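W.,

You were right to be curious about this one. When I first looked at the sequence I had no strong expectations either way, so I just let the prediction run and decided to look at it fresh. Below is the sequence, 59 residues in total, followed by the output.
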Amino acid sequence: MPEFRCSECRKAYDIATMNFQCENGGVFKLVDKDVEFPVKKSRKPAMWRYYEALSIENK
């Protein structure tokens, strides 16, 4: 289940929160532990390593 985490203190917030930052001033990061991020480690460390995760269609 996705949630927001403070980038400073790592406190978790519900995804439906109306706040845009933590009470200590840190910005939120979206965290979803159930999602796997496809990475081809055999590719060079550039943006094309993450091709499958990008919204690019072959034309």
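Here's what jumped out at me. DSSP finds no helices and three strands in the chain. And, maybe more interesting for your project: The beta strands are 3-6, 12-13, 28-31.

Coffee later to discuss?

I.
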